[in-house]
Amino acid sequence: MGKRENLKSRILVRIVTPKVMPLKPIIRDEKDLVEDESGSFPAKILLSSRDTRIASVKVGVLEKGKTIEVHSHEGSDQIEYYMDGKAVMYIEGLGERIIHKGSFTYIPKGVKHGIKEVIEPLEIITIFIPPLF
Predict the structure, then answer these.
(1) Which of 10, 18, 39, 79 sees the fewest Cβ atoms within 10 Å?
(2) Residues in CB range of 47: below 8 A, 6 or more apart
(3) Strand segments (E) across 18-112
(4) pTM
(5) How do strand 68-71 and strand 95-100 relate by DSSP bridges?
């Protein structure tokens, strides 16, 4: 292979190979977290697509009496762990269920879900894979 062909190969590899974001450790203090009001409930962003292409993570509280309309995420799986509170949740294929402190949900992409009623303020850790935000 001549110098010209070698140069063409290196240029082609750079053009067609997507840039992979290097993974790096992250530690964040609560005081440094970004507040997000744009989602279904006010939350603090722990990890976003700016940090990694693997997942996005937020933590927040859905107040008593609030609801989240039935919806789905076409491009991301949703994982939630409920640290406190109680609510009625709808998940397509499972129907309405009570979730509470210690409950966990996994909702594959495309599955409809929503919160019908928050009975006690619901503290939630939400993970989207791949990142939703």
Answers:
(1) 18
(2) 26, 55, 56, 57, 131
(3) 34-36, 43-47, 56-62, 68-71, 77-91, 95-100, 104-107
(4) 0.81
(5) unpaired
Count of other CB atoms within 10 angstroms of residue 30: 8
> Please, what are the averages of pLDDT over each run of 10 residues along the chain (133 residues)?
55 49 86 90 95 96 98 98 99 99 99 99 98 95
CA distances from 85 to 14, 62, 65, 67, 98 (A): 50, 9, 12, 14, 11
In degrees and rounded to multiples of 5, residue 118 shows phi and psi of: -90, 120
Distance CA 5, CA 67 (A): 61
| From the candidate CATH numbers 2.60.120.10, 3.40.50.2300, 3.40.190.10, 1.10.10.10, the one assigned to the domain spanning 25-129 | 2.60.120.10
